[in-house]
Specification:
By secondary structure, this protein is of the alpha/beta class. It has two domains: 98 residues, Aspartate Aminotransferase, domain 1 (Alpha-Beta Complex); 218 residues, Aspartate Aminotransferase, domain 2. It is built from 13 helices and 13 strands. β6, α7 and β7 form a beta-alpha-beta unit.
Length: 353
């Protein structure tokens, strides 16, 4: 294994990590600073963390009968899910498995490896859609403990077909698997799978919704949350470390939710900038840019490494994903930035092709 690497972005236009490029307005910066300065940092986190759980449940319109669990980013929750599902197996039996479409978010496989579980990756088709027959076949064979479905997916930025999702979720229930719908990029997507869950919560008792405030605009705060049936969350909560969300984390998150309209306007701007960026990329000769429901765009170029190096030499940092999976050959992942950042990206992109 290799440690998770973060690219040096000093002095660069940072478009490699799907961050919200907008900062808090100055008046809110001052209000938040005063609020954080008044916290009792000498005390462990208190019942105020439950105020955040309630605020997030209201913000997400969480279904009746569901509960919510907080994590130090969604990464911690992914790790805790693997830990909770690492149960003993009979002699000669297969280890519990975690299944996900690939290419996908790397932490699904990392969490399995760190916990000593099997990771089973089911390749997408060439259009980056779910290979439903392969998914159903693998679920029936392995009966995985957890199935991850990122909605939208990273790095392909697309939403899966509704019928394919329904088939996979039903098959998972029949196999005794948990399904984790990872909606990290929900602020930029056309829809949420929570709408499907709300229509029939009982039918989705084995489904968990994973979200983060990182893409909402608080990547530096590290706050993820997991929603699911109360009985299921109660079991998962047993492996959560005490005080895993700091007083600074939850107070920042509460402050942001109190000003949700500011972050909603930022998301609206990002979606508008995404449309402009996508149109410009699709007009470039030799470039294939896929439609996106996230704050990133996946592009295929003639030479990914050459283009990446050219962008970097011109002060623009993106993510070279061309070696992550064969389906991503010659692909780069571009975060949608501000108008000025995207203008610089496009100019540098043309010069780097």
């Amino acid at each position: 294994m290799q440690a998770y690497a973060v690219q040096d972005a000093v002095g660069m236009v940072k478009l490699d990590a799907m961050e919200n490029p907008h900062r808090l307005p100055p008046d809110l910066q001052q209000k938040l600073g005063e609020r954080l300065g008044a916290l009792a940092l000498n005390r462990y986190p208190d019942g105020r963390v439950n105020d955040l759980r309630h605020a997030l449940a209201c913000y997400a319109h969480m279904p009746e009968g569901f509960d919510i669990m907080l994590g130090n980013g969604s990464d911690e929750l992914i790790g805790l899910l693997a830990m909770a599902c690492d149960v003993p197996v009979p002699d000669g039996g297969e280890k519990p498995a975690i299944l996900a479409p690939v290419p996908g978010f790397v932490m699904y496989a990392v969490s399995a490896a760190l916990q000593g579980l099997d990771f089973v990756g089911v390749p997408l088709d060439t259009d980056f859609e779910l290979d439903t027959p392969a998914m159903l076949r693998t679920i029936a064979q392995r009966k995985p403990a957890i199935i991850y479905l990122a909605y939208p997916n990273n790095p392909t930025a697309n939403l899966w077909d509704a019928n394919a999702m329904a088939q996979v979720v039903q098959a998972a229930g029949e196999a005794g698997s948990l399904v984790v719908i990872d909606e990290a990029y929900q602020p930029f997507a056309r829809g949420t799978y929570l709408d499907v869950v709300r229509q029939n919560p009982q039918q989705h008792a084995h489904v968990l919704l994973l979200r983060t405030l990182s893409k909402f605009g608080l990547a530096g705060v590290r706050l993820g949350y997991l929603m699911g049936a109360k009985a299921l969350i109660a079991e998962l909560d047993k492996v959560r470390p005490p005080y895993n969300v700091s007083v600074l984390n939850y107070e920042c998150a509460l402050f942001a939710l109190e000003h949700a309209e500011v972050f909603a306007a930022q998301a609206l701007d990002i979606r508008a900038q995404r449309a402009i960026l996508l149109e410009a990329l699709q007009a470039m000769s030799g470039v294939h840019a896929w439609q996106s429901d996230a704050n990133m765009i996946l592009v295929r170029v003639p030479d990914a490494q050459k283009t990446f190096d050219g962008l970097k030499s011109r002060g623009v940092l993106v993510k070279n994903v061309s070696k992550m999976h064969p389906l991503l050959a010659q692909c780069l992942r571009l975060t949608v930035g501000t108008h000025d950042e995207n203008t610089r990206l496009l100019a540098a992109f043309l010069e780097s092709l």
